Amino acid sequence: MRKFVIATIGILYSISCYAQGVERINMRRSAQWPKDYVTGKTMIEVTFENPDGYEYEIGLIRNAINETWAKYANIEFTNWERASYRQKGIRIRVINRADMSDEAWPHTNGLGTQLDGLENGMILNFIWPGYPSNISRNDAIRFTAVHEFGHALGLAHEQNRPDYKRNCNCNVAIEETKFKGDGGDGDYYVTPCDENSVMNYCNRNWNNWGRLSYYDVLGIQTIYGKNPALTPSADQQQNVTIVDDLGTGQTWENMYVVLGSDQRTLHVDSNNSRDAIQFFNKKRSVYYKVWCSTYYGSRLMQGYGDGFITVPENRSSAFEVLLVGEPVNGKATLVLQQIN
């Protein structure tokens, strides 16, 4: 088989997802916040119903939002103080309860402008027991805020689309992710399916570790415009996604990939025909190493390759792992080659 895996720089390029043409970042069109007709900037006030004693946590949240949604899109979040009478914008209440009830679950009570002036429109819980045990409390607060502010900007859960599980290998039951506080469903499809979205419960990295995926950035810029103050280094941050699909005749495959200073493993078999991993990288020239071990029927084959890939400036690029020639004694030479 000629192709084992597709590696994408800054773009998840998955044939089975992309070809469907219907999987998109999940937004409610009517929920978009208005832009200033002169500057084009969207200004949104953020206030807290009960800020006393949470100054430190509010600082974490503000920094997280300014380093994600506000960094890449033409949006500015202002105020960050106590909500006043008839306050407009996003109004947040902190409910610190160590239980998994709907009321204590971090959530929004709507999407986008449905929250405008809504008392307790967003609920945050700094001691929620549902946070992963392998991250710090500060990270849990920041990662949760990035996800919930996605709802506040009008984005619904990526996995809420009825066709997502079938086409994008989502193993989370849709019913399990729909409770009364999940913000609702979208009706506006902006970018191709994104298994790495910060809005996706099926993401193997919880809330994508608080970092926007390539398609999160592209989607929010499509909706709200690109931040005109965006620096070249921030704009050119590359999200490198490696996707491995089980090929015809393959029983299983293990792959180990080193890209720059980071390393990941993938595994596919008859029960899980696709695996995907994401790297974060800013360099245009990146050194890689890739190893694979796979069974074609009863025949074991191993492969190795290394070299440099050059990321074209100011656009996304896709790469695939190719066999060089024919395997010799069950061993193959692999190379990453640009495909777009």
UniProtKB/TrEMBL annotation:
UniProt name for this protein: Astacin (Peptidase family M12A)
Pfam families in the record: Astacin
Gene3D superfamilies documented for this protein: Collagenase (Catalytic Domain)
Coiled coil: none
Record InterPro entries: MetalloPept_cat_dom_sf, Peptidase_M12A, Peptidase_Metallo
Organism for this UniProt entry: Niabella drilacis (strain DSM 25811 / CCM 8410 / CCUG 62505 / LMG 26954 / E90)
UniProt superkingdom: Bacteria
Single GO BP term: proteolysis
Example of a GO MF term: zinc ion binding
Residue stretches spanning the membrane: none
Peptidase metallopeptidase domain segment(s): 29-185
